[in-house]
Amino acid sequence: MARGYAAARVQLPLRRLCVPDSLALARFLWKRDVDCDVLFGVRIDPFAAHAWVQKGELLLSDNINAVADYTPVFRL
Questions:
Q1: pLDDT tens digits, residue range 23-54?
Q2: Which of 8, 10, 38, 48 lies 20 to 30 Å from 2, alpha-carbon distance?
Q3: List of E strands, 1-76
Q4: Does the pLDDT of residue 11 top 90, yes or no?
Q5: How far apart are CA 75 and CA 58, in angstroms?
Q6: Is 2 exposed, middle or buried (0-12, 13-18, 19+ CB in 10 A)?
Q7: Euclidean distance between the first and final Cα of the chain, in Å?
């Protein structure tokens, strides 16, 4: 389902932003009774923040390279 969502998301002519995109994917999955979490993470040097969707240890919205440098600080 997450792959299908990602394929459809590419068709939208909107800039990708991690928070709204992660919340939209999570809502899509929650409405289909798929349990997942939105994680919000930070890195210190240089400072940055990022949000992504996971089901357990499985990344649904990003690949491991996109989130590896971030420490999760909040789970929704």
A1: 999 999 999 999 999 999 999 999 999 999 99
A2: 48
A3: 37-43, 48-55, 58-59, 71-75
A4: no
A5: 14
A6: middle
A7: 19
Residue 38, exposed/middle/buried by CB under 10 A (0-12, 13-18, 19+)?
buried
6: CB partners within 8 A, 6+ apart:
25, 61
3-state secondary structure of 51: strand
- Cα(18)–Cα(20) distance, rounded to whole angstroms? 6
Q: Hey, what are 29's tokens?
A: 């999955």
Q: Which residues pair with 54 in a beta bridge?
A: 37, 59
pTM for this model (two decimals): 0.83
